[in-house]
Amino acid sequence: MVLVVAVTVVGSRQLHRWGADRAQPVASVAGASLERTAVPDEVAGRARASLLRVASTACGLTRQGTATVVRLPGGRGDSPVVLTNRHVVAGTSLAVADDGAWVGDLVVAGSVPRRDAVRLRAAGDLPADAALEVGPMPEVGAPVVVAGYPGGGFMAAGGTVVAVERRHGYGGETPMLLVDVDAEPGLSGGVVLDAAGRAVGLVAARDPSTRDTVAYPLAAVSARVRAGPPSC
Q1: Domains in the chain, start-ordered, CATH in brackets?
Q2: What DSSP string describes the chain?
Q3: CA-based nearest residue to 160, from 28, 15, 22
Q4: Which backbone phi and psi does 135 adopt, to 5 degrees?
Q5: Sign of CA dihedral 110, 112, 115, 116
Q6: Rounded-to-integer distance, Cα 133 and Cα 153, Å
Q7: What is the pairing mode between strands 212-217 and 172-182?
Q8: pTM above the 0.90 mark?
Q9: Mean pLDDT across the stretch 87-111?
Q10: What is the pLDDT of residues 185-204, one digit of tens each?
């Protein structure tokens, strides 16, 4: 079972140089707002323009997470798709984006079967250039960037795909990317980018033994959604 990332708690994290060995962190940082040069500026900037800091209140909890705007292959025209984790919006039909590419309400359009993933619909037009293009699934050893809003502050951290493992959760099994970047609270629903700045993964969890980021390959969350918000 994949351990989901907790929400709304600010913690410490390590930012790694682009493609560097995990034993050589740039810094260990605690705080709210992070935007560092651990990754190429153009990749970090592209990520920030395509991510939304989201919040929801339901099931007796207030949650903060991240949503990623992508352009899925085979989608309808040029319409962007907004993805986050099911556990970020469980029990509600509405989330609020208050930073990043867009500000406003997000309606929960439906959940991806057997995945910790949902599709959101913006109650208004997203910027035309907000959506990330989707790249192929990276191989083990590939340099990548993990980006999102842990603790409410933007972060883009370089790391490496250290493994691809089949994992169970939400009634299904799928290969998952493990990236040697600490997965901190609020990063749920963030993105894994390849060296070209294309989206290759949706952050879903923190590995319980290593704290590594666990992410779905984008192909694993591209299925037709089941309408309606996920239950508590």
Answers
A1: 12-45+135-220 (2.40.10.10), 50-132 (2.40.10.10)
A2: -PPBPP-S---EEEEE-TT--TTSEEEEEESS----SSS-HHHHHHHHHTEEEEEEEETTEEEEEEEEEEE-TT-STT--EEEE-HHHHTT-SEEEEEEETEEEEEEEEEE-TTSS-EEEEESSPPPTT-PEEB-PPPPTT-EEEEEE-GGGS-EEEEEEEEEEEEEEETTEEEEEEEEEEE--TT-TT-EEE-TTS-EEEEEEEE-TTT-EEEEEEGGGG-SPPEESPPP-
A3: 22
A4: -105, 170
A5: negative
A6: 24
A7: antiparallel
A8: no
A9: 90
A10: 999 999 999 999 999 999 99
> What is the reported pLDDT for 182?
95
Instruction: List Cα–Cα distances, 92 to 25, 123, 193, in angstroms.
Output: 38, 15, 29
